[in-house]
Recover the amino acids of this structure.
C-alpha cells in the first residue's frame, strides 16, 4: 500500500524552543509614554491616550507594528488569547460539538487561510469536536471575516437567518470588527455588527489560528474570559 | 495606417530588438482611436509582446480621462499607447485582444467610459442589484450615493444553451468550506459543463479609490491587504513605483533582501496551492501534510519577518528589519527542509494512478488560449508561455542572480501542478544565493521627499504579473492609482478551462489555477 494512504510518521508539530514564536505576531499593550507622534502614527486610530497612558483599541489595531518600531516604542505582548466574549445568553448551549459556517464578506485571504489552517494537523480543531459545515442550517457558529461589502450584505443576512437558534456569531479580524483600513471605503457597509449581532470578537490582522481557536473555546465555555482582557 | 504610426512601430520594434528599454520608463505612443486597433493587432500577434492592461489617467486640463494601453516586451521595453476620449467613445479592442474584455468592462463601470462595439458592458464591478447605472465612482471626487438604496434589480442568470433539459447551476457567492466569495453559473444538460460564466466583484472594496489621498505608509499597508497571500509582492510593486519618484537610494543589500523575502513568499503560496490541489482531489493525508508544511513556512515568516503573512515587512527605501547572514542561512536551511519534504510527497504522488487520473488532461488551456487571454504567472507558464517579469522587465537584484523560468507544454491540471513545484525549486535556489557576498549597509527605511508625477511598478508576484501605476503629490500622498493584478487577468480564462469537463472536475480545476478572489475584486 502506498504510504500516502497510511500517513507519514513524521509529526509536524510546533517545533521552536519558545512555544509562542511564530505562532502569534503579538499585539501592542497599554504603555505609559508621552509622545504625540505615536498617536498620529497609527493608520487606523487604534491608539487612544488616557491619563498619560496610551491604550489600544483592539478592534481597530491591524498589528502593522509601526508603533512597535517607533522610538519610544509601544510595549508588545506575544500572547494569543485575543478573543472577547460579548454575550451571556445560553451559556451552556455549545458545550458539546461545534459546527461552523465560514462567510467571506470581503477579506484579503489571510484570515480565511488562518481558519483553514485550524484543520491542518498542526492545530487540528477536530480534536475539540469542532468542524466546518457547508450549510448554515446545520451551523451553531457563523464565522465572518472581512469588512462587509455592500454586495455581500444580503448574503450575510440570509445566512444568519437560515441558522437555527441558539447561534453564535464570531467576527474574525480587524476588518470584521471595525472595518480596519477599509472602514472609509464607499463600497463597504462596515463592521459585521452593523449587519448582524456579534457574540465573540477576535481581533488581529489576521488573528493567528490559536487566537481563533481561543474564541471557539470560549463559545464552548472551556476557557472563561480571563482577566487578561484590558 | 499613417506614416507617423509606422515610424512609432518601427521605433518600438527596434528598441525591443536592441534591448534598449529601461525598466519602468515607458515609451508613450499617442494614437487616434483607429490607429489603436491597428497597433494592437500587430502587437498581440507577436509572441515577444504581452498586454499588461488599460491604465486611465486624468487629462492635464479639464476632468476627462485618457487611456493608456500598456504592452511590455521580453527585454525591458514598456509601451503605453495613449488614446484620448474625444468622441466620448473609444472602439473596443476586445474582439482583437480578448484579454482586454474585463478591463474595458471595468473602465465602463468605474469611469463611465464607453467602448464602441463591446457586446456586454455594465453590471460588472458595480452589481445592478446594489448600484445605479452611471455612478462612475473613480471619476468623481466625492461619492454621495451609497448602494442598496434603489429597488433591487433582479439577478439575471446568463444562459446560452437552449437545448431541452438544459439548465444553469448557480454556485456561490457563498461556497462550502472556507472559500472566498465569488459566483459561477454553470450551463449544463446533466453532467458536462457546456458554458461557464463568472460573476466576480462581490468583495469589491474599492481599494484604488481608497488609496487616493493616503500617505505612502498607509498606502503600503493597504497594498498588502489587496491579497494577503501575495502581500510582499503587492507592497514591492507599489514601493517600486513610489521609489522612482523619490530621492531614496535603495541599498544593494536591501534589494537582495527583497528578493529573498519575495521568493520566500512565492514558495509559501505555491505550497499552499499544492495543498489545495491535493485537497480537491480528495487525498486528505498528503493534503494535510502539505498544509502542515505551509504552516511551517508561516511560522518561519513570523519568527524572522515579524508577521505570518509578511505584512509590514517592506517599507519605502528598504525593509523594516535586518538580518545577519547566519539568520538568512538558518531560514534557507529550514526552507530546504520543507522543500525536501514537499518533494518527497510529490514524488510519491506521481506513482498514484487515482491522483493522476484526476489531474491529467483536465482543465486544458492550450498555448493559443493562454495567448488570447494574455495569461500571466504559473498558469501561463504551464501552458508553454515563458512569461516572467523577473526576466522580461527585470527589477531589483534579479539581474545579478541566476535562475531559470521553467515551463510545461501540456497546459492541463497536472502541468500546473508540476509547474508549481518546479518554481518552488527555482525560488529556493534564488534564496540560497542571497546570503553570499553581503555588504554591510543598513536595510532599514528612512523618510523621503517626492516629486509629483506618475510612475509604474511591475513585480512578478507568486500568481503572476502585478502592475501599479501611481500618481503622487510632492508631500508623498497618493493622487491616483491603477492596479492590475494576476487575478484580474487569469480568472478571465477560467470559464474556458472548465468547458466540456464534468461537475466533479470543477473544484479540481479551480484549485489548479490557485487564484485569489480578493486579488481580482480589489
Amino acid at each position: 500500500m502506498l504510504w500516502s494512504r497510511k500517513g507519514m510518521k513524521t509529526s509536524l508539530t510546533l517545533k521552536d524552543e519558545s512555544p509562542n514564536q511564530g505562532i502569534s505576531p503579538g499585539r501592542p499593550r497599554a504603555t505609559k509614554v508621552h509622545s504625540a507622534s505615536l498617536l498620529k502614527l497609527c493608520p487606523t486610530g487604534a491608539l487612544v491616550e488616557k491619563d498619560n497612558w496610551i491604550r489600544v483599541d483592539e478592534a481597530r489595531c491591524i498589528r502593522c507594528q509601526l508603533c512597535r518600531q517607533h522610538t519610544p516604542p509601544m510595549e508588545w505582548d506575544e500572547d494569543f488569547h485575543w478573543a472577547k466574549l460579548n454575550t451571556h445568553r445560553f451559556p451552556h448551549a455549545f458545550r458539546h460539538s461545534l459546527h461552523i459556517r465560514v462567510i467571506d464578506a470581503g477579506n484579503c485571504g489571510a484570515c480565511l487561510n488562518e481558519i483553514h489552517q485550524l484543520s491542518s494537523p498542526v492545530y487540528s480543531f477536530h480534536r475539540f469536536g469542532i468542524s466546518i459545515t457547508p450549510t448554515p442550517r446545520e451551523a451553531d457558529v457563523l464565522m465572518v471575516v472581512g469588512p462587509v461589502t455592500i454586495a455581500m450584505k444580503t448574503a450575510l443576512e440570509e445566512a444568519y437567518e437560515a441558522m437555527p437558534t441558539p447561534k453564535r456569531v464570531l467576527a474574525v479580524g480587524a476588518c470584521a470588527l471595525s472595518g480596519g483600513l477599509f472602514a472609509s471605503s464607499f463600497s463597504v457597509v462596515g463592521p459585521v455588527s452593523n449587519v448582524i449581532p456579534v457574540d465573540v470578537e477576535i481581533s488581529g490582522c489576521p488573528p493567528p489560528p490559536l487566537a481563533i481557536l481561543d474564541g471557539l473555546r470560549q463559545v464552548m465555555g472551556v476557557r472563561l474570559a480571563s482577566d487578561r482582557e484590558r | 495606417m499613417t506614416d507617423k504610426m509606422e515610424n512609432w512601430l518601427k521605433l518600438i520594434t527596434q528598441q525591443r530588438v536592441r534591448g534598449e528599454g529601461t525598466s519602468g520608463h515607458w515609451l508613450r505612443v499617442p494614437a487616434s482611436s483607429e490607429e489603436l486597433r491597428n497597433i494592437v493587432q500587430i502587437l498581440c500577434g507577436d509572441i515577444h509582446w504581452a498586454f499588461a492592461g488599460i491604465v486611465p489617467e486624468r487629462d492635464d486640463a479639464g476632468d476627462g480621462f485618457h487611456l493608456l494601453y500598456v504592452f511590455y516586451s521580453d527585454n525591458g521595453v514598456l509601451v503605453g499607447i495613449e488614446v484620448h476620449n474625444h468622441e466620448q467613445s473609444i472602439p473596443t479592442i476586445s474582439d482583437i485582444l480578448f484579454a482586454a474584455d474585463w478591463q474595458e468592462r471595468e473602465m465602463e463601470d468605474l469611469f463611465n467610459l464607453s467602448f464602441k462595439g463591446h457586446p456586454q458592458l455594465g453590471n460588472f464591478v458595480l452589481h445592478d442589484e446594489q448600484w445605479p447605472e452611471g455612478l462612475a465612482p473613480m471619476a468623481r471626487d466625492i461619492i454621495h450615493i451609497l448602494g442598496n438604496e434603489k429597488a433591487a434589480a433582479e439577478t439575471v442568470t446568463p444562459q446560452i444553451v437552449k437545448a431541452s433539459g438544459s439548465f444553469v447551476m448557480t454556485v456561490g457567492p457563498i461556497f462550502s468550506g472556507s472559500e472566498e466569495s465569488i459566483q459561477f453559473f454553470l450551463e449544463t444538460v446533466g453532467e458536462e459543463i457546456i458554458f461557464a460564466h463568472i460573476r466576480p466583484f462581490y468583495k469589491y472594496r474599492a481599494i484604488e479609490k481608497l488609496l487616493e489621498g493616503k500617505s505612502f505608509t498607509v498606502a503600503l499597508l493597504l497594498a498588502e491587504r489587496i491579497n494577503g497571500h501575495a502581500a510582499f509582492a503587492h507592497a514591492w510593486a507599489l514601493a517600486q513605483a513610489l521609489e522612482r519618484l523619490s530621492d531614496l537610494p535603495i541599498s544593494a543589500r536591501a534589494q537582495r533582501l527583497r528578493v529573498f523575502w519575495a521568493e520566500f513568499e512565492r514558495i509559501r503560496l505555491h505550497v499552499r496551492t499544492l495543498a489545495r490541489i491535493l485537497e480537491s482531489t480528495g487525498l486528505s493525508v498528503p493534503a494535510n501534510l502539505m498544509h502542515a508544511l505551509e504552516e511551517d513556512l508561516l511560522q518561519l515568516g513570523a519568527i524572522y519577518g515579524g508577521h505570518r503573512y509578511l505584512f509590514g515587512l517592506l517599507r519605502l527605501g528598504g525593509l523594516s528589519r535586518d538580518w545577519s547572514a547566519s539568520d538568512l542561512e538558518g531560514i534557507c536551511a529550514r526552507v530546504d527542509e520543507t522543500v525536501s519534504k514537499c518533494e518527497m510527497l510529490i514524488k510519491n504522488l506521481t506513482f498514484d494512478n487515482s491522483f493522476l487520473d484526476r489531474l491529467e488532461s483536465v482543465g486544458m488551456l492550450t498555448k493559443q488560449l493562454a495567448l488570447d487571454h494574455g495569461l500571466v504567472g504559473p498558469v501561463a507558464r504551464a501552458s508553454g508561455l515563458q512569461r516572467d517579469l523577473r526576466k522580461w522587465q527585470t527589477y531589483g537584484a534579479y539581474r545579478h542572480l541566476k535562475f531559470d523560468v521553467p515551463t510545461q507544454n501540456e497546459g492541463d491540471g497536472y502541468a500546473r501542478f508540476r509547474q508549481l513545484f518546479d518554481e518552488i525549486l527555482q525560488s529556493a535556489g534564488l534564496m540560497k544565493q542571497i546570503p553570499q557576498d553581503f555588504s554591510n549597509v543598513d536595510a532599514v527605511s528612512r523618510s523621503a521627499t517626492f516629486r509629483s508625477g506618475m510612475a509604474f511598478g511591475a513585480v512578478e508576484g507568486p500568481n503572476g504579473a502585478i502592475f501599479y501605476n501611481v500618481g503622487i503629490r510632492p508631500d508623498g500622498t497618493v493622487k491616483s492609482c491603477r492596479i492590475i493584478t494576476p487575478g484580474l487577468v487569469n480568472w478571465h480564462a477560467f470559464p474556458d478551462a472548465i468547458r466540456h469537463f464534468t461537475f466533479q472536475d470543477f473544484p479540481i480545476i479551480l484549485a489548479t489555477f490557485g487564484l485569489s478572489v480578493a486579488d481580482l475584486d480589489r
About this structure: Chain A touches chain B through 66 residues (CB under 8 Å). Residues 1-18, 226-230 of chain A have pLDDT under 50 and may be disordered.
